[in-house]
Design a protein that fits this description.
Helices cover about 40% and strands about 15% of the residues. The protein is of the alpha/beta class and about 375 residues long. Bound molecules: pyridoxal-5'-phosphate (PLP).
Amino acid sequence: MEPIRKLPMVDLLTQYKHIQQEVDQAVLDVMRSSAYINGPEVKSFASELGSYLGAKHVIPCANGTDALQIAMMALGYQPGDEVITASFTYVATAEVIALLKLKPVLVDVDPETFTIDCDAIERAITPRTVAIVPVHLFGQCANMERIMEIAQRHNLHVIEDTAQAIGAEYTFSDGRTSKAGTIGTIGTTSFFPSKNLGCMGDGGAIFTQDDALGNRLRMIANHGQSVQYQHDEVGVNSRLDSIQAAILRVKLRHLDTYCKARQDAAAAYDATFAENPGLQIPIRLSGSTHVFHQYTLVIKTKSRDELRSFLDTRGIPSMIYYPIPLHMQSAYTDPRYQPGDFPVTEYLCKHVLSIPMHTELSAEDIAYISSNVLEFLNS
Ligand SMILES: *Cc1c(COP(=O)(O)O)cnc(C)c1O
């Protein structure tokens, strides 16, 4: 049977149509300026994003994976140094650690927020540990207060992977608030089109409050040169295109509206799912807002994969973020880790399901999606 309607997981086209005039004009202006690389749009975007986040230095770069790599290069780690990160994350986080010949040390996540488990961080620290890389997964900050306290006690850096949580706000117990990505030593993000602040190609950025580190990050992203044709160390070539920066300047002005649209959609999903014993809705940590890069359910009683197939027959897409834990990926197998070592991660990989979440969801879409989820769970 043909589904009654076919919904997208993410609706970038409708989002674009609402701001088409502004975006088209911004792109045309760059084309007519011929300042395609490192033009004024890139500088303006970096400074506007810095103001939005409260970040002293914003260094735009080519993508979120490069952002993580440049961050770790700038901190001057030596091969074999240990970097602690979550076993339940996108591969990029662990990939750059391995690529730089550092040692990824994986730890399990919290079953409620899916972010890095702080007790597990403490247990994983050794004399070779240099950094903790919390991932603000699905749009909610990890427990940054506790992570910063652990880092200070052990003299470690904190690199926040904010690719999924740009705009999220963290509140410390003393009432101080900070935007995700501005709390640790360095924050990194991605402007991949489907991220909460997405461009129309690839893009990324690095944030820091530290002047010396800001200069170093800028230098490493630009072939390791501080002055043109003078290379102080080995760097990389990682730039944000002027056209993407111009698009991001437009979209940054809408970011708070976009966050609100996602939060409203999440609240509407919550209202229909609450109290259903067959699933766990996204649990919010008191210290952080949630900007819902994903709305991820834990399917507890019935088969997640059967629910996914059922939704597909109704024209409802869904995705599994992430189906295979890092320690069970061929590229990252390590004699230190065995299946069973990260029980929460392994459980989540089998039971999570992300349903459509974007800025253009209508009340009707949400009602249609949630009634189908409930129909399957209650059958
Ligand atoms: C998307 C993402 C990245 C990588 O970003 P790219 O721009 O695709 O390189 C890194 N970490 C996390 C958690 C992500 O979601």
